[in-house]
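Ticket #4471: structure export looks truncated?
Reporter: QA, pipeline team
Priority: medium

Steps to reproduce: submit the single chain below to the structure queue and open the exported record.
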Amino acid sequence: MPFAVYALGLAVFTQGTSEFMLSGLLSGIAADLHVSLGAAGLLTSAFAVGMVVGAPLTALAGRTWPRRRALLFFQGVFIAAHVLGALTSSYGVLLATRVAGALANAGFWAVALVTALAMVGPHQRARATAVVVGGVTVACVVGVPAGAVLGELWGWRSAFWAVALVSVPAVAVLTVSVPGGRPDGPPQAGVRSELRALARPRLLLTLLVMALAQGATFCAFSYLEPLVTRVTGFGAGGVPVVLALFGAGSFAGVTLAGRLADNRPDTVVRLGTAALALGWAALALTAAHPVAVLVLVPLQGALAFGTGTTLITRVFRLAPDAPTMAGSFATAAFNVGAAVGPWLGGLALGAGLGYRSPVWVGVLLMCLAVVGTAVLFVSPRAVGARSGVPTGRCPEREL
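Actual output as written to the record:
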């Protein structure tokens, strides 16, 4: 695996830390900037919306740039947004920096994924994707808890400074490791041609399955704290342990999927979506039993991120003629799930359905994902004919 792929994973680690670290900093931000907790919570929503909207827009803006230049530009904007956020005393400016950071993160993700795949052979694509996505899982295990500790010791601004400082080595490593020329291969197609390539039914259905699976994951994950404290019976000190187990499982999942998905991607998606649905249902049913929770939480993390990594790889295989835009749509689908899932879980809690209800909402979303997966694989040859993909061969096997 080229060293540059690991450099991309390092950059994604810092960006993933920023995306999720506000969960442990909201009270400090609200008190310091004299806003409500709800207003502070909008900073997280703004980041998610920026990721969804920014992924295709930034990909369009930078699609003809040399990849190293695009990566360094997006990383530079990301660092600047966090420096400004750490310095400001204005809630409005902080909100704007979160949107700017999200736009840069989205653009970086789209280019990073296609860059990683371009530097490896056809049989290492899932492993390369796993290394990049693995940066997010390491952020869940290490970065987010570290940000919470910094916020507790030295205030929320210290977490922003830490993200900016840790991002600087990534800039240096990317500068020396990522090739500086323009993307290899034939000249890129026009924007309209790329967008037409992204309108293929199998690709759109894959993106839908990805959004549903991530929605289920983040719906359950966002409300693990009330579940394990009020249903399982763990004290507040047990919450970081459970969250760390989820992150550790996620890291194991992307690592294992990277080795399996290059040879059997369809099997990983089929079994992964079905196992996720069963696993969330098992967690909802056994949430009062500590041992079951400690087993199921890391297992679900592994399944969620392992399946998600394989779906991302599949998106690129279905759109070989639009790689940068395919990466942006995969990023957007991931973050649609990350935004919609917690919202639906909050609605269930607000309706008085109990602390297990977000997990049951996750089960429902995964059942829809299982149906989508069944449709996706029911007749690849027939669907390929409608999508413009030659029916005599399957792009997943070919690329």
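Status: closed, not a bug. The export was complete when the record was re-opened. Leaving a note from the reviewer for reference: The radius of gyration is 20 Å.
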